[in-house]
Amino acid sequence: MEFQDCFPVWNKLTPSQQALILGARTERSVAKGTVLHSGGADCAGLLLVKSGQLRAYILSDEGREITVYRLFDRDLCLFSASCMLRSVQFDITIEAEKDTRLWVIPADAYKQVMEQSAPAANYTNEIMAGRFSEVMWLIEQIMWKSLDKRVAAFLLEEVSIEGEDRLRLTHETIANHLGTHREVITRMLRYFQNEGMVRLARGAVELLDKERLRAVRDA
C-alpha cells in the first residue's frame, strides 16, 4: 500500500503539492508502546497510519489516562502536529497500541499545501470536526453513563476491533482507556463474571454472553 493510496484527496492536489508532501514525508515503523507525541509542546508532524493501531489519550494531573480516540489503517492524526493547531488548548499523547507502520508529514509542509489547496483544507476540517465530535461523545459518556455501561461498551468495541472474544487486556489497561482506577475496573469485571457475562484470566478477559453485555450497554 502506497502513501498515495492512503491520502483521500491525493488526486485533487497539483503535481507541485504532491511533490512537496512526497519530498517531506518519512516512513517509520514503531513497536507497541512507543509514544509518538506527548503534549502540546511536542510537534511530531501529522501521522498517517499505514498499518497498525494508535491511541490518543489525555493525562490528568494525578496521572490518570483516558482514551479520546484511536487510529487505524489510513487514519490521519492531526493533534500530533500541535504547532499547526493553535486553537487546540489541551494536550494529547499519541501511543502505538500495536506494532505500527506510518508516515510522518512535517507540519510546515502540510500547512503549506493546506493553504494552497481547498480540497486538502476541507479534508483537514472534516477530520478536525470528527475528532471534536469524539471528544464531545467522550464527555457525554463520562457525565451521563454509569461505569457498567461504559465497561460493557468498551469490551464490545474491543471484540469488534480484534475479531475474537478473548481479549488480551489487563484491568489496568481498561482503567486507562476509561479514565478510572484499576480497582474499580476489577470490581466491575468480577461482577460481570459472577453474572456469567465474562470469564477472567491473568491478562485476559473472555466475553461469554455478548447479548447480555449489549443489554447492559444499551439499558
Give a written overview of the molecule.
Helices cover about 45% and strands about 25% of the residues. The protein has helices at about 5, 15-25, 105-115, 120-145, 145-160, 170-180, 180-195, 210-219, and strands at about 25-30, 35-40, 45-50, 55-60, 65-70, 75, 95, 100-105, 165, 200, 205. The protein has a four-stranded antiparallel β-sheet. Strands 2-7-4-5 form a four-stranded antiparallel β-sheet. A three-stranded antiparallel β-sheet has the order 9-11-10. The mean pLDDT is about 90.
Task: Provide a quick synopsis of the model.
With 219 residues, this protein is an alpha+beta fold. It is built from 8 helices and 11 strands.
What characteristics describe this protein?
219 residues; alpha+beta; four-stranded antiparallel beta sheet; 11 strands; elongated
Average pLDDT score? 92
Helix-strand makeup class? alpha+beta
Morphology: elongated
Give the biggest sheet. Answer: 4 strands, antiparallel
Widest beta sheet: strand line-up: 1-8-3-6
What fraction of the residues are assigned to beta strands by DSSP? 15-25%
H/E series: HHEEEEEEEEHHHEHHEEH
Q: Would you count the extended β strands for me?
A: 11
Distance from first to last alpha carbon: 42 Å
Low-confidence stretches: none
Mind telling me the C-alpha Rg?
19 Å
Number of helices: 8
Indicate the percent of residues in helices: 40-55%
Topology (SSEs and partners):
Layout: H1 3-6, H2 15-24, E1 26-30, E2 35-38, E3 46-51, E4 54-59, E5 65-71, E6 76-77, E7 93-96, E8 100-105, H3 107-116, H4 118-144, H5 147-162, E9 166-167, H6 171-178, H7 182-194, E10 198-201, E11 204-207, H8 210-218
